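To assess whether ligand presence alters the predicted conformation, the chain was also submitted together with uracil. Input:
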Amino acid sequence: MAFRWQNEQLPLLVAPVRIDRMIGKWGGWGKRRVRERVEAGEVLLNGELVTEGTVEVGKFDRVELGGEIVQANVRRSLMLHKPAGVVSATTDAEHQTVIDLVHEPWAGELHLAGRLDRFTTGLVVLTNDSSFSESLTEPERKIGKRYLVTVDGPIHGDVIAAFEEGMWFAKEQVVTAPAEVELLSADQCRLTIYEGKHHQVKRMFARFGIKVIALHREAIGGIELPDDLPSGAWRLLP
Ligand code: URA
């Protein structure tokens, strides 16, 4: 089956769009010609015969016409183990990006569901499905992000109490949701936060004059970075 459009050259359409308009654009045809093709039973949506040109097509629906693929965008989400020094961006003039680590023809379709600072390591989720990324990043959803944090000084009780209570961030005019702290040693903890403010973990510790010296994201909601996923590698999410 031939592709008239190469998928990697196609911007993913902002769904939904009417199937007759999509086909008209694809074939460079007017309304009458499109109607004829629909009436001739040549148009399939996800394998089913289309009888009405007004049917709406989502970004990840498959559309075929007379044996040719009009749209076959595949939904893809993946977890990536970000190494230190790689930037959480889709393009960067200076540094390697997380997208550069996904050596696939469709890598350019992906966007990030939450960023990490350049020297933070660990779990990054990439997807071409904006409803999935929104489900992880929308502040109202209060998705937990769990970090392993190593700092340069003792994590004393006042620090833990402040984190667990919530902290005022003047720049964003918000009080952070109560965080969870599991103290592992005097200078290391597991910290779960429910927002994704810029440099949030470093700023939380900086309030107490404590510097974060290593930061590693272990989980976002129910998505855990597997122990056997090496730094720089990625794995598709179901
Ligand atoms: N908080 C930070 O300070 N940096 C990160 O990369 C993530 C959370």
